[in-house]
Design goal:
Layout: E1 2-18, E2 21-34, E3 39-45, H1 54-63, H2 65-69, H3 76-83, H4 91-109, H5 113-116, E4 129-131, H6 136-145, E5 150-154, H7 160-168, E6 174-178, H8 185-197, E7 200-204, H9 212-221, E8 226-228, H10 237-241, E9 247-251, H11 252-255, H12 258-270, E10 274-278, H13 284-291, E11 299-301, E12 313-314, E13 317-319, E14 322-324, E15 334-335, E16 344-345
Parallel strand pairs: 4-5, 5-6, 6-7, 7-8, 8-9, 9-10, 10-11
Antiparallel strand pairs: 1-2, 1-16, 2-3, 12-15, 13-14
Helix pairs in contact: 3-4, 8-9
Length: 346
């Protein structure tokens, strides 16, 4: 098996702003695993909140090249387990490698991953489209630019309810709101009443990730469901979220890929929680991997590639919230752009 690392800078359609970050481009690392006739691809983006850099991911995976390339590839799950001790503190790199292994495995078997898992795609959730924090006038323009049945509104300003009220004047679509840890417990309970009246479906991560006492209070009194994001990073966090959140939002890069994500989904179901999978601002490589999980989910946020001014790959496509799968094995992706010689790590 051969490992190749590709580095790209993804241009965004608009400056993307959330409560703790703002950017115009997004760096991403594409991992390629090849066994000769087949190539599998995985992705992980840089992320300052979690301290993930392209340099660190590249260094870590390069240091493991001998172990990766020397492994007698069987299943992605066995591959993940074999390398887990060496990647325990490097979930973003682990995710990209695990995605690539799953894609490669599907290509070897000649089937899409979801079929290998015994799943069908007749009934899958719609994905939302994200409106990042901006002036309310620009947020309205973004909404009008992309008519959609379901929006996620990024919040974390002194005027959050007023923003949602203004956006509501321009669409009948369902809203979800994501405060990205910016609210207090009292503020969340109060805002939930107003937001429910404005057609909001749920509130994602209103409090700081470590404020479990505050979340317990919000859980008791909120009139809207609550979804954990920053509070649910890895498998060990799922059980802790029960009784504090009604659902968890799994990010593949945070938990280490598709292998642990499937275990987290099963655990959340056992605890009576609903499940969402979210994305970063990423290319169709990462988005197409998420799509394989859709039949297992209640909610999904996989609009990352739609936020780009230019993609580097093809794979699943999304039309008005609905995902369409390519007739291709694995995750169905193909790279359509090549990195510069400087950014190709062999």
């Amino acid at each position: 098996m051969k490992l190749t690392l590709h580095r790209f800078e993804l241009p965004l359609k608009h400056t993307f702003t959330i409560a703790y970050d703002s950017r115009d481009t997004q760096e991403t690392l594409i991992v390629e695993l090849a066994d000769g006739p087949h190539r599998g691809y995985g992705e992980a983006t840089s992320n300052p909140y979690y301290g993930a850099t392209i340099e660190d991911m590249t260094d870590r995976l390069t240091s493991l090249r001998e172990s990766i390339e020397g492994y007698a590839f069987g299943t992605p799950e066995d591959f993940w387990t074999r390398l887990a001790p060496s990647l325990a503190e490097h979930s973003f790199a682990q995710c990209a490698l695990d995605m690539a292994a799953h894609d490669l495995y599907g290509r070897q078997k000649g089937q899409p991953l979801y079929r290998l898992w015994g799943l069908g795609t007749d009934h899958v959730p719609l994905t939302n489209y994200t409106i990042g924090i901006d002036s309310v006038e620009k947020m309205v323009l973004k909404l009008k630019e992309m008519p959609w049945p379901l929006y996620k509104i990024k919040l974390g300003t002194p005027d959050d309810v007023a923003i949602v009220r203004e956006l509501r004047r321009h669409t009948d679509a369902t809203f979800r709101v994501d405060a990205n840890c910016a609210w207090s417990a009292e503020e969340t309970i109060r805002n939930a009443v107003a937001l429910k009246a404005l057609g909001v479906e749920f509130i994602e991560q209103p409090l700081e990730a470590g404020d479990w006492e505050g979340m317990k209070e919000v859980y008791r009194h909120s009139v809207l469901p609550l979804v954990a994001d920053e509070s649910c990073v890895e498998e060990a966090d799922v059980a802790r979220c029960a009784g504090h959140f009604h659902a968890i939002n799994i990010k593949l890069v945070k938990c280490g890929g598709l292998t642990p994500a499937r275990r987290m989904i099963a655990q959340a179901r056992e605890l009576g929680m609903k499940v969402m999978v979210g994305c970063m601002t990423e290319s169709s490589v990462g988005i197409s991997a998420i799509a394989q999980l859709l039949p297992l989910l209640d909610y999904v946020d996989m609009d990352g590639a739609l936020l780009l001014a230019g993609d580097i790959a093809t794979g699943v496509t999304i039309e008005y919230g609905r995902v369409h799968y390519p007739d291709a094995p694995g995750t169905g992706v193909s790279l359509t752009a090549a990195p510069s010689e400087r950014d190709l790590v062999r």
